[in-house]
Design brief:
202 residues; alpha+beta; Glutaredoxin; Glutathione S-transferase Yfyf (Class Pi), Chain A, domain 2; 2 domains; globular; binds glutathione
Length: 202
């Protein structure tokens, strides 16, 4: 197996933390955007979207989309379980992971794409959309904080992929200047728990 990685990417970080939690040894190829390797014919046959992360299996099968990679790894390395132990837990993990991806990570990524100069030549930027996305992410942090009242982790009593997605979203928020308000003490306590895990810096 080989992981095509992009160091600064929040989606690639989701997969790196997942792999570290499973303690799987997977060789990594760091893709340097400056070389344009991810837009070459060679890479585009692996992922037509030219994006990272991507997991290449030993028989050449390629899996992209961070959650699909995590799903494959969960099926092939079930311990420790990071996607729930029972049907209800698995549904809750899926529910919360989607919420964290759609309601927190994507708004933050869109805010970045629609406001940062690095994207001005490759994407159509709509500054008002960046503002809308920022407000969306801030609103999500509000209801996430209320949901974490009395809970150790986001989806179940254990650390799961939903925590990983939220963790990577909050790091993305820091990078684009959206910080968790100090009043959100439930998120602050959860953040302390997840970032004290040895895998947090994967
Ligand atoms: N939905 C995909 C998103 C992948 C993605 O957008 N990756 C970005 C980094 S976060 C990338 O490779 N960008 C390089 C480019 O678009 O050229 C996932 O979850 O893996």
């Amino acid at each position: 197996m080989k992981l095509y990685d992009l160091n600064a990417s929040p989606n690639a970080r989701r997969v790196r933390i997942f792999i570290a939690e499973k303690a799987i040894d997977i060789p990594v190829q760091d893709v340097d955007l400056a070389t344009g390797y991810n837009k070459t014919e060679d890479y585009l046959t692996k992922n037509i979207l030219g994006r990272m992360p991507l997991l290449e299996l030993d028989d050449g099968t390629c899996i992209s989309e961070s959650h699909a990679i995590c799903r494959y790894l969960e099926e092939t390395y079930p311990n420790p379980p990071l996607m729930g132990r029972t049907p209800v837990e698995r549904a809750h993990v899926e529910m919360w992971n989607r919420r964290m991806e759609l309601e927190l990570l994507h708004p933050l990524i869109n805010m970045f794409i629609h406001s940062h100069p690095m994207w001005k030549d490759t994407r159509t930027q709509i500054p008002d959309w960046a503002d809308v996305c920022q407000r969306h992410a801030i609103e999500t942090l509000g209801w996430l904080d209320r949901s974490l009242e009395g809970r150790e982790f986001i989806a179940t009593d254990d650390y799961t992929v939903a925590d990983i997605t939220a963790q990577c979203s909050i790091l993305m928020g820091k990078a684009v200047g959206v910080r968790v308000p100090e009043t959100h003490s439930n998120i602050a306590e959860w953040w302390g728990r997840v970032t004290s895990r040895p895998t947090a810096r994967a």
